[in-house]
Amino acid sequence: MEETFISSKPCAKEEEIIDLNQITLRSFNLSDLDDVMVWQTDEKVAKFWGEPYTSKDQGINFIENIESEYLLQCKAICHNDHVIGCIKLFSSSLHDKSRYKCAEIGYVLASKYWGKGIATCAVKQMVMVTFAFSEFSYLERLEALVDVDNVGSQRVLEKVGFQKEGVLRKYVFFKGKSRDMIMFSLLSTDIQL
Ligand SMILES: CC(C)(COP(=O)(O)OP(=O)(O)OC[C@H]1O[C@@H](n2cnc3c(N)ncnc32)[C@H](O)[C@@H]1OP(=O)(O)O)[C@@H](O)C(=O)NCCC(=O)NCCS
């Protein structure tokens, strides 16, 4: 079933061009392929995201196989229903809900849209929907691992209310080098639902 989540709180600042009330989350369709390729082939995006795609087949594979074993949710970030990014919730402990009530959040936005508050708005929507309304409302903790040099992403999490827990030294091997990562978390009890 197609889902559209609309923020109940406006997050826009007056001087911004993009109306953040037009930022919604929905499922991906194959017709979104060209939009997906925009950020998946962008070297700027890839710096902290992963290897850029080199073929449309990779984009098709991404859209067609979004439901992988560890993915709880993967939504398109849309502006006026036009896909400009992606936000996902995943967990390696999906099969043991009685023991683990924690999931990790990840997000990406086409570089043309950076710096307008859009990722912050999308993360807020995902947090609210997850803790309050979804089948994943059993989750008590959302966490995010951010490269120490990814200042923009750290700021997004801080603005949403995530707490910085500490630095995990040489935690992720990425682009030929072990990277220090910052662990952020948000508990369901940290926010007003
Ligand atoms: C990280 C990312 C999602 C942020 O998206 P965004 O829509 O630009 O984020 P927002 O506009 O909501 O907030 C960004 C904040 O970081 C700040 N920021 C961005 N780059 C910064 C930098 N180099 N130094 C200091 N602050 C920076 C912005 O000023 C803004 O804060 P402000 O509102 O207090 O001014 C986007 O840059 C992206 O897609 N990057 C590539 C993928 C990625 O890194 N994903 C996260 C993996 S953990």
From TrEMBL:
Q: Where is the N-acetyltransferase domain?
A: 23-180
A GO molecular function term, named singly, is:
acyltransferase activity, transferring groups other than amino-acyl groups
For this protein, the record's InterPro entries field holds:
Acyl_CoA_acyltransferase (IPR016181), GNAT_dom (IPR000182)
Name-wise, this protein is Acetyltransferase (GNAT) domain protein
Q: What organism is the protein native to?
A: Medicago truncatula
